[in-house]
User: Fold this.
Amino acid sequence: MRKYSIRYIEVKARARSGAIRLSANEWKKARHFDDKFRLYVVTDAGSEMPQVHRIHNPAAYFRADKDMSLAGFIVPEEKGALHTQ
Assistant:
């Protein structure tokens, strides 16, 4: 019998490229589900060549004090934040 593990996934898309925003609730879920949480960011979704970037456990990857804003958690495009794993 094959054993399956549960994953919690949030998907964000951009027509072109740029930062995306996780709401405070989405960030809370990322922290709660820890290693089981995945963030998929689709960039260039409005083009012929969309790109999918997977961030495994974003709560461990980003710093809440640096990247959090009043509007939620900002996932920057620069600094290799969006990378395929």
